[in-house]
């Protein structure tokens, strides 16, 4: 029994599903579930996987990935708890929910691995951090590492870091899109046509990310390379500092970490 069940096929569930299929997983080895039957039909038609109800999907899977909102997880675990096989591996992508809380809700020793992925996985540039629960073996952790590697990079971290990881790489794409939106609006305000402003900003974001990763240079050094003495960039960065943008990012990241901590309680 080497089937994989994905319970909750929303944004992140579909992202994982599509990534596994791009990485040559066989659609016959994957079963999906969702609360809305029409969503299941959509995925069956789009990807050729099968769909089932939660209990049947869990019954036929050796690896069960739960990808519902943290607020929906309690009901889902109550439903599947009785049918999770003794040797099954439960993988949770739910923000904030601890492996201990899942183990406790299942009510018997079960292998759980907690994962924090992100949406760039849709283009195989994801960043996922994984942590094993009390009953997860190193082989099971390695299995999850290889699953997530289908959609990008994977790091293993102690679970105590997962709330911080969620605040940085889990939510992080949204902060960067927010910066992109703000810069596009800035260009429009200066009179650039919206499509021109968008192209300039998107390529600048992409090129800068590429430069960071390819050179391995510190962002401060790369920023200094752009900042001519008495020039335009220095004027802009001064304005960002005057508006407390760096402090705002730090406060925002703390808020995300705090919210993640609260989500385990539902
Ligand atoms: N989106 C992101 O960038 C990231 C999300 N995550 C985590 O992934 C999880 C899912 O998030 P996301 O994909 O964005 O959310 P979505 O709402 O897009 O997907 C969740 C899906 O699960 C379905 N669902 C809810 N309850 C059940 C159930 N009992 N049985 C079967 N399906 C069910 C929902 O149905 P319905 O539509 O009816 O509610 C929905 O289709 C969350 O826990 C989130 O913290 C982690 C990292 C990044
Ligand atoms: O906003 C959220 O709660 C989820 C977790 C990380 C990204 N999206």
From TrEMBL:
Give a Gene Ontology cellular component term annotated to this protein.
cytoplasm
* Family as reported in the entry's similarity comment: Belongs to the pyrroline-5-carboxylate reductase family.
Which NCBIfam families does the UniProt entry name for this protein? proC
Organism for this UniProt entry? Desertihabitans brevis
- Pinpoint the Pyrroline-5-carboxylate reductase catalytic N-terminal domain residues: 3-96
Query: Pyrroline-5-carboxylate reductase dimerisation domain location, by residue?
Result: 159-261
* Entry's Gene Ontology BP terms: L-proline biosynthetic process
Q: Its Enzyme Commission number?
A: 1.5.1.2
Give a short account of what the protein does. Catalyzes the reduction of 1-pyrroline-5-carboxylate (PCA) to L-proline.
HAMAP family in alphabetical order: P5C_reductase (MF_01925)
Give the reaction(s) catalysed: L-proline + NAD(+) = (S)-1-pyrroline-5-carboxylate + NADH + 2 H(+); L-proline + NADP(+) = (S)-1-pyrroline-5-carboxylate + NADPH + 2 H(+)
Q: Where in the cell is it found?
A: Cytoplasm
Q: What is this protein called?
A: Pyrroline-5-carboxylate reductase
Q: In which pathway does it act?
A: Amino-acid biosynthesis; L-proline biosynthesis; L-proline from L-glutamate 5-semialdehyde: step 1/1
Task: Give one Pfam family, short name only.
Answer: P5CR_dimer
């Amino acid at each position: 029994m080497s089937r994989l069940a994905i319970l909750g096929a929303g944004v992140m569930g579909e992202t994982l599903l599509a990534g596994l299929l791009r990485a040559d997983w066989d659609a016959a080895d994957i079963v999906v579930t969702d609360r809305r039957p029409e969503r299941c039909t959509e995925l069956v038609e789009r990807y050729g996987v099968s769909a089932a109800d939660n209990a049947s999907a869990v019954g036929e899977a050796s690896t069960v990935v739960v990808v519902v909102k943290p607020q929906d997880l309690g009901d889902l675990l109550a439903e599947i708890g009785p049918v999770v096989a003794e040797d099954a591996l439960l993988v949770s992508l739910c923000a904030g929910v601890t492996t201990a809380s899942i183990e406790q809700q299942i009510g018997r020793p079960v292998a759980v691995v907690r994962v924090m992925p992100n949406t760039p996985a849709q283009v195989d540039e994801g960043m996922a951090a994984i942590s094993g629960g009390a009953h997860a073996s190193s082989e099971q952790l390695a299995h999850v590492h290889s699953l997530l590697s289908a959609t990008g990079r994977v790091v293993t971290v102690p679970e105590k870091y997962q709330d911080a990881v969620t605040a940085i790489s889990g939510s992080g794409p949204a902060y960067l899109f927010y910066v992109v939106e703000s810069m596009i609006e800035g260009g429009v305000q200066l009179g650039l046509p919206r499509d021109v402003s968008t192209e300039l900003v998107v390529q600048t974001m992409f090129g800068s990310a590429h430069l960071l990763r390819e050179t391995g240079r510190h962002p401060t050094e790369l920023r200094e390379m752009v900042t001519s003495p008495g020039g335009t960039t220095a004027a802009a960065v001064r304005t960002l500092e005057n508006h407390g943008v760096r402090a705002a990012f730090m406060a925002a990241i703390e808020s995300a970490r705090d919210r993640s901590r609260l989500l385990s309680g539902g």
